[in-house]
Write a structure and sequence with these properties.
The structure is a homodimer. By secondary structure, chain A is α/β, with parallel strands linked by helices. Chain A has 6 helices and 11 strands. The first copy, chain A, is globular.
């Protein structure tokens, strides 16, 4: 029943490359951040692909997928856009007709939109009355599983500031990015306290898990 | 015979708090970064104190001290000042008559100064002809042990850019600092490639070690 957030971060603290946009949603060079995950057996299985590498990284992703009963994401994470849906060139989202979530997804937006049912168990519900309302709906949908914030960093920060985030996991990749979006930038004063709860050594990635202390 | 650098870093990437100065060399709130080390048995022993906690963190510090045969540091790391030595109010350095290094220390400076011999095996040699000359002298002094860069970040970056750094270890503490000096800021283009070589889970700190790939 925890509210969780996990993200891949470079050694110099970036979660995207510079200048993210519709063509490069992860910014210039940002794909390199996520290369560690594309070859994992558990990730490939979730995306309908064969093969891949077993091991601690794959096990970690499998565990994360298994414990997640609902997902919350921001509008920009969903399409890269903002404003009215009819003006959004990517209004059908990045994730296609058979999205990898396979659980109810709650999209934070200022613009109402009818729910959608996709293949494989993914549903999209568009929530216009704020982060607490989205969390309430997501918790109800998740049952006894966790709710995962899929991003972006701004949405994570909103939940962290509101004292609603329970767990944070950083997948630290051995890369220097030099420029881009930083996970914790602009978090403001009254910084939350964290307690390290787990360190896992993956093949190239270090997985650092923290509990938010309240 | 490796050239190494290790430093404590917050989860949001800072190695000092904001506004480091003579009164607060680690910046506002920066002492909190290093609290993990003050209670360790190996650190206390090196600083002439009794007691302390054994365990993986203490072992890691002991290993690091044992393998270090010489130290390189920047002028600001040494006194917090710059310019001619006679105008530096902290010209005798932060480290007192019995410094914890107990090996030859090479201080990078633009201002010549006679070498000094302190208690316990620490000597200070002031190097005015650049980072490569300092490294050459430090290697000769270290024998078959490693040379450690004691900081600051700017000195580490100079060695990293010059292709001279072999190993980098980050001690990641479960703190958010919000503002301060970042380890990798201003490193510029041509970012080096790193390979993760070790992850150690300490009591509260995650220790991430990288090899610089050349």
């Amino acid at each position: 029943m925890a509210l969780t957030f996990e993200i891949t971060v470079t050694l110099d603290g970036f979660v995207t490359g510079p200048d993210p946009n519709l063509e490069q949603p992860l910014g210039a060079g940002g794909e390199a951040l996520h290369e560690w995950i594309f070859g994992l057996r558990s990730w490939r299985e979730r995306h309908g692909r064969e093969g891949g590498t077993a091991g601690p990284d794959s096990d970690l992703v499998a565990e994360s997928l298994a414990r997640t009963g609902a997902v919350i994401m921001g509008r920009r994470m969903f399409t890269g856009g903002d404003g009215p849906w009819e003006d959004d060139p990517n209004r059908d989202s990045w994730f296609g007709d058979d999205p990898p979530f396979r659980v109810p997804v709650f999209v934070l937006t200022h613009h109402p939109r009818e729910p959608e049912i996709k293949q494989g168990g993914t549903t999209y519900t568009f929530v216009t009355d704020g982060i607490e309302a989205a969390l309430e709906q997501a918790r109800a949908a998740a049952g006894d599983k966790d709710v995962a914030i899929a991003g972006g960093p701004n949405v994570m920060q909103q939940y962290l500031r509101a004292g609603l985030l329970d767990e944070l996991e950083l997948h630290v990749v051995p890369l220097l990015m030099g420029d881009g979006v930083r996970l914790f930038d602009g978090l403001g004063p009254d910084l939350p306290k964290l307690e390290r709860t787990r360190v896992l050594e993956g093949d190239a990635v270090a997985h650092l898990r923290y509990r938010v202390v309240r």
